[in-house]
């Protein structure tokens, strides 16, 4: 089934029971910890002196986490309602984030504007994702850092992301047109798109659920109306792993 990206125009990004709440409660803590460690501890960047671009920011779930850690964040998304919601929520919590409406395939910035560009939970929704990678590279400074996170195209991701979370009536927690398994991206495919865009991959790590049995039990409780979807994520947080059979994230450096 083709993905329905128009659904994000009606998305309540900050509701603890919305279909994206697993991102904020389970996945976000894992990826912001990993990305912040890569940028500040391993590469040695100082947040206050670095311009960061979030490509496909949605309602600002990850952009706010970067901003809280001191990074100077710009976020772009093609969904104007999502951008308006992101602006309103940032203002509500006192964060200064530059949000703009834009497609990832044509970013409204000059060449080599940003020190860091990241694209998370986005590329698997875009048929021409190599174009987004190339455009991200265009606005990234030479020697700049490209961060990514997406879903692998494997039997495991078909079972979990498609069957368990989207299709099976007794466990379904997200709409059945959020993901199309055929659009999931194998690491070697993404790394090839990065190389074509002059970004050399440095590291790729897997992302798995820390408590898979608890995760399924929590989903069943959610289906019975006993807990929010956000609470499901808090019960079963994502962790960095060597297992890339479901999701993965990593970073590359743009060639000088």
Topology summary:
Elements: H1 21-42, E1 51-55, H2 61-68, E2 72-77, H3 80-93, E3 98-101, E4 114-120, H4 129-138, E5 140-151, H5 155-167, H6 187-196, E6 199-209, H7 212-223, H8 229-235, E7 238-241, E8 247-254
Parallel strand pairs: 1-2, 1-4, 2-3, 4-5
Antiparallel strand pairs: 5-8, 6-7, 6-8
Summarize the structure.
The chain is α/β, with parallel strands linked by helices and 256 residues long.
Polypeptide structure, described:
With about 260 residues, this protein is α/β, with parallel strands linked by helices. The chain has eight helices and eight strands, in the order αβαβαββαβααβααββ. The chain has helices at about 20-40, 60-70, 80-95, 130-140, 155-165, 185-195, 210-225, 230-235, and strands at about 50-55, 70-75, 100, 115-120, 140-150, 200-210, 240, 245-255. An eight-stranded mixed sheet has the order 3-2-1-4-5-8-6-7. Helix 4 (about 130-140) links the parallel strand 4 (about 115-120) and strand 5 (about 140-150).
């Amino acid at each position: 089934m083709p993905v329905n990206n128009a659904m994000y125009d009606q998305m309540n990004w900050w509701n603890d029971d919305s279909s994206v709440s697993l991102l904020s409660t389970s996945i976000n803590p894992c990826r912001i910890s990993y990305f912040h460690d890569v940028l500040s501890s391993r590469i040695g960047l100082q947040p206050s002196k670095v311009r960061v671009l979030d490509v496909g920011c949605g309602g600002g779930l990850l952009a706010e986490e970067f901003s809280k850690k001191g990074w100077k964040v710009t976020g772009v998304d093609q969904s104007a309602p999502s951008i308006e919601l992101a602006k309103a929520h940032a203002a509500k919590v006192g964060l200064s984030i530059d949000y703009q409406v834009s497609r990832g395939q044509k970013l409204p910035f000059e060449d080599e504007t940003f020190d860091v560009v990241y694209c998370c939970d986005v590329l698997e929704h875009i048929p021409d994702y190599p174009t987004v990678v190339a455009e991200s590279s265009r606005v990234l400074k030479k020697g700049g850092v490209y961060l990514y996170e997406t879903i692998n195209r494997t039997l495991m991701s078909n079972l979990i992301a498609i069957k368990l979370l989207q299709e099976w009536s007794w466990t379904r927690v997200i709409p059945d047109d959020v993901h199309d398994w055929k659009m999931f991206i194998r690491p070697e495919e993404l790394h090839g798109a990065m190389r074509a865009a002059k970004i050399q991959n440095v590291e790729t790590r897997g992302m798995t659920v820390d408590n898979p049995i608890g995760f399924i039990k929590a989903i069943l409780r959610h289906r019975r109306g006993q807990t929010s979807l956000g609470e499901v994520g808090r019960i079963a947080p994502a962790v960095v792993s060597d297992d890339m059979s479901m999701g993965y994230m990593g970073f590359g450096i743009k060639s000088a």
